[in-house]
Amino acid sequence: MTLHRAGVQDEVEDPEGPGGDHLALTVGFDGERWLVDTGLAGGMYEPLPLREGTYTQGPFTYAMAPSVVVPGGWRFTHDPRGAFTAMVFAPMPVELSSFAAEHHRLSTSPESGFVRVLQAQLRDAKGVDMLRGCVLRRIDAEGTHERTIDSADDWYDVLADVFHLNLTDVAAPERAALWHRVHTAHQEWEAAGQRAATP
């Protein structure tokens, strides 16, 4: 297994190359290299060969292509319904320590999306489940289904039943505080959206 410096990117490749906000994983098997990245939110379900082309897995279609910015690098493009647009990674192997600074920023900065919004995502063979705050979304062959979770009990049931995150070992006061934080952020997000929609 090889670790690569990577970055989640938009439609156009960043001329600076991968920013290091993601760690890509590749392996060699039977004379070919494969992307086996399990850390891409709602990404692929099975490994993808480092070969230019399009690949369908369940309801999603992905693309692999050589990077236009990083010599020897690769660009993985997600299905348009995915949680991100693309990921680019450099070919050179790196050590885990190379990601320490960016990991700290993403884990602690008030500007980080991972700090601002609680997220859980789980890909399966038929689609993906995504929880952002209080909004649960399922994308599969039948389309996109979304619902808002309004109670702490339902929210913790979703974490356990859908994402296999059983938090029964967390004490009741901490569970209540987590739900309060998530629900308050959701209400503020809803209020901001309503204000933005008001002419």
Describe what this molecule looks like in 3D.
The mean pLDDT is 88. By secondary structure, this protein is an alpha+beta fold. A hairpin with a 2-residue loop joins strand 11 and strand 12 (143-148). It has 4 helices and 12 strands; from the N terminus they run E-E-E-E-E-E-E-E-H-H-E-E-E-E-H-H. The strands form 2 sheets. An 8-stranded antiparallel beta sheet has the order 4-3-2-1-8-7-6-5, with no helix packed on it.
Q: What labels describe this entry?
A:
199 residues; alpha+beta; eight-stranded antiparallel β-sheet; 4 helices; 25% helix
How is the largest sheet built, in terms of strand order? 4-3-2-1-8-7-6-5
Number of strands: 12
CA distance, first residue to last residue: 54 Å
Sheet-strand content, in percent, reads 35-45%
Major sheet description: 8 strands, antiparallel
The low-pLDDT segments are none
Protein structure class? alpha+beta
Radius of gyration over C-alpha positions, nearest whole angstrom:
19 Å
**SSE pattern:** EEEEEEEEHHEEEEHH
Number of helical regions:
4
Shape designation: globular
Output mean pLDDT: 88
Helix content: 10-25%
